[in-house]
Structure formats: C-alpha cells, structure tokens
C-alpha cells in the first residue's frame, strides 16, 4: 500500500458546500428495510465553540440541523510543509478500531483549510481528566495504560508510529468505567521509509534519542516506535503521580523549588529537566522513583514504568511486550486508606456527573501530590461514520 493511498482518502472525502459559519454535506444512504437504493441526504452543520487548539489549527464543536454533535479539526494548509494527507491516511487505516481511536467521520477541504470530522468526545482529554480528578487510582491507571498499549500495538503493527503520545492527545470516551481513545495523528508517520529527524513529540514526553542525549545517534527508522513507548512511560508516570518524570522544577521567588502542577492546562506544557535526564541517559543516576514511591505506587507499577523509561531505545519494551507485563495483567493490591480515594471519586462525580461511580475495589491509594516540593534525587455524541453511508 502506498504512503498516501489516495483511493482510500477519496472514499472518506465529504461532498461539501460552505455557508456563513456552516457547512453542508451531501451523503447517500441505502435503506435496505425500506428497499431504498440510494437516498440523497443533506446535512448542515453549524460551528458551536472551540474545543482545543494545537500546533497547526483548532478543533471545533459542530452541531447538525438534527441536533447531532461532532468535532472538526481545522488545519491551515497555506503553511509550508503541511502534509495533512498523512493524518487523514492514518485515520482511515485505524478506522476499524473505533474502540481504540477517535472515530473518523470523513474530511473536506477548501482553498485554505482541510477539515477532519470526528466523533465528539464530550469528556475531553486526559489532561482535563487529571486536572479534575487528580492522579488516578491504580486500577484506573492500569486500565488507561492497557488501552493505550492496545492502541499502540495496533498502530505499530501497521508500521505507524504516533509520535505525539501525551495526555492532551488521549480522549476520555467514558470516565467510568474508564475508556480512553488515542487521537491526533498530526505528526504520525509511517515507520518505514521515514527519518527520525523530522518533528518530534511534545516537551516533557520526548524520548532522549530525539533530544540528542544519547551518545549513539539513532537515525534508523526502526526507533520511532520506541519513541512512543518512552512517551507512554511519561504518561503512565503522570497518571500515577500527577507529574511527568524528569520534570523541570520551578523556582519560587523565596528560593524554594516547587512543581508547577497543572500549568499545561493553560496551554503550557511541562518542561523536561534536561540535566537530570542527561545524567540518567549517561548511566550516572537511576531513574528517579521517589515521586512514584511517595505516591504509594506499587512495586509492580514502578517496575512497569522502568521497562518503558529506558534510555536505550533498543532495550525499551515494545508495545506487545509491555502489554504482557506483570503489572498490566495482574490485580492491584487492595487499597489501604479510603478517605483519599473517596475525595477523588467525589471530584470525578462533580466533574463528570453524579451518575458516575468509580469502582472502589482493588484500588491502591496514594497521598495527594499537589502541591509538591521536590528536589530530584540522583542528581466530547457520536455522528454517523461515512462508512455507514457506503
Ligand atoms: N474528537 C474530539 N472531541 C472532543 N475534544 C477533542 C476532540 N479532538 C480534539 N479535541 C480537543 O482538542 C485538542 C486539540 O486536538 P488535536 O490534538 O487533535 O489537535 P492539535 O494538537 O492541534 O494537533 P497537532 O498536534 O496536529 O497540531 C485536544 O487536546 C482535545 O482537548
Ligand atoms: Mg494534540
């Protein structure tokens, strides 16, 4: 299959006309029960609000004349080097796994922008979830990690590396039971025939080989899947503790050091403490686990994080191997303190509605980690898919 696979792209392209703040699509539906061969359906969508923005555009909530909601990513194509076909191609390739990836509803374009229509995931992204509910209980963290690994196994088997795994690109399909989906294939690239030296992930989640921190140069394409595994290790650390590993410490005016918890929610992403990361990559210090331990994370979970946060990409666990890790397949130990967990459950209920009821069995409770004073040791209703209409 070619990198672009234009025939597949064309199949997902929506027949479109533009109005003032609206867009109209013509689709064709076959109704077997009514013995209707090919009915022409016209749907007009109106912009409602912005759901988020990133490096190349905005994501807008749209509502159809029938009330249906969807999210549309609008990417400016006037800028040089924007190859939007890659993002759409990846979405077509994973469209059969709507349990793991945000559901793709088609795309359309005008002279300045390309628009990617997706199901609207009302609960937002994992950054928002962590901000509201705090670090996850062990079994929720396990669930999120397992689902992300299933997504990465699927992507990597297709020779696709995501290349921007981070909480903002993980959407919460359901807070309870927890169900997450991987989104944003903007910097995904097919692994074969690519170089690592194109762009690269987000601050805080970038693998050391992309930052030039390893003595050996990793130019080979085979390493880009390992980049996803490092990023996943950072995400797992964050969902367990509230903080990325190797986080740069903020200096307070009074000279104390403090993590700037949650600053990424305002748009800024956490920055990496390059010095500590470099020292780890050079083998001078171990992976700092003090924050994981202070958060009362189990030894199995710590061992899992250590399998991913390995400086040498050759030795970093691949997705399939990580999916079989003891922590992922085991039951977490029973919780020891229910008051903190109850606080967390109440926060989830306040945020996502009173009907949500996080399960409390098998939950490992940790101390809240906000705010922390740490000096590193060791120096959004689903639309119908275009495929439904075909
Ligand atoms: N389907 C969706 N439903 C609800 N919210 C969404 C959806 N897709 C994206 N969002 C929100 O919009 C934000 C930005 O979306 P996305 O990550 O796809 O774009 P981006 O970061 O601008 O992409 P790029 O990295 O290519 O610049 C997400 O972090 C999320 O909060
Ligand atoms: Mg994004």
UniProtKB/TrEMBL annotation:
Domain Protein kinase: 45-328
Segments traversing the membrane: none
Sections of the chain in a coiled coil: none
Gene3D superfamilies in UniProt: Transferase(Phosphotransferase) domain 1 (1.10.510.10)
Protein name per UniProt: Protein kinase domain-containing protein
Organism for this UniProt entry: Discina gigas
């Amino acid at each position: 299959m070619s990198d672009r696979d234009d025939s597949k792209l064309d199949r997902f392209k929506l027949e479109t006309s533009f109005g003032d703040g609206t867009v109209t699509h013509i689709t064709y539906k076959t109704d077997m029960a009514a013995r209707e061969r090919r009915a022409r359906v016209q749907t007009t969508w109106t912009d409602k609000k912005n759901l988020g923005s990133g490096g190349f555009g905005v994501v807008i909530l749209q509502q159809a004349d029938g009330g249906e909601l969807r999210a549309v990513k609008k990417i400016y194509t006037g800028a040089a080097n924007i190859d939007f076909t890659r993002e759409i191609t990846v979405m077509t390739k994973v469209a059969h796994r709507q349990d793991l990836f945000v559901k793709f509803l088609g795309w359309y374009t005008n002279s300045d922008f390309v628009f990617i229509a997706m199901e609207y995931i009302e609960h937002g992204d994992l950054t928002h979830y962590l901000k509201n509910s705090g670090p996850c209980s062990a079994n929720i963290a396990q669930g999120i990690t397992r689902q992300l690994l299933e997504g990465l196994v699927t992507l990597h088997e297709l020779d696709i590396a995501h290349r921007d795994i981070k909480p903002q690109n993980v959407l919460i399909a359901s807070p309870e039971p927890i169900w997450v989906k991987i989104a944003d294939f903007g910097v995904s690239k097919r692994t074969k025939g690519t170089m690592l030296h194109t762009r690269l992930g987000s601050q805080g989640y970038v693998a050391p080989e992309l930052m030039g921190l390893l003595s050996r140069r990793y130019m080979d394409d085979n390493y880009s899947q390992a980049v996803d595994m490092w990023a996943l290790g950072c995400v797992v650390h964050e969902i367990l503790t509230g903080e990325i590993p190797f986080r740069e410490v903020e200096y307070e005016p009074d000279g104390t050091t403090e993590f700037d918890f949650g600053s990424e929610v305002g748009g800024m992403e956490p920055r990496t403490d390059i010095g500590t990361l470099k020292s780890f990559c050079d083998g001078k210090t171990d992976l700092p686990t003090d924050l994981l331990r202070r958060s009362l994370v189990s030894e199995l979970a710590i061992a899992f994080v250590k399998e991913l946060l390995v400086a040498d990409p050759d030795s970093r666990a691949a997705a399939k191997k990580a999916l079989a890790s003891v922590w992922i397949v085991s039951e977490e130990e029973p919780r020891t303190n229910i008051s903190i967990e109850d606080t967390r459950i109440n926060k989830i209920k306040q945020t996502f509605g009173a009907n949500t009821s996080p399960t409390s069995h098998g939950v490992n409770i940790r101390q809240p980690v906000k705010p922390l004073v740490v000096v590193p040791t060791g120096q959004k209703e689903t639309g119908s898919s275009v495929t439904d209409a075909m």
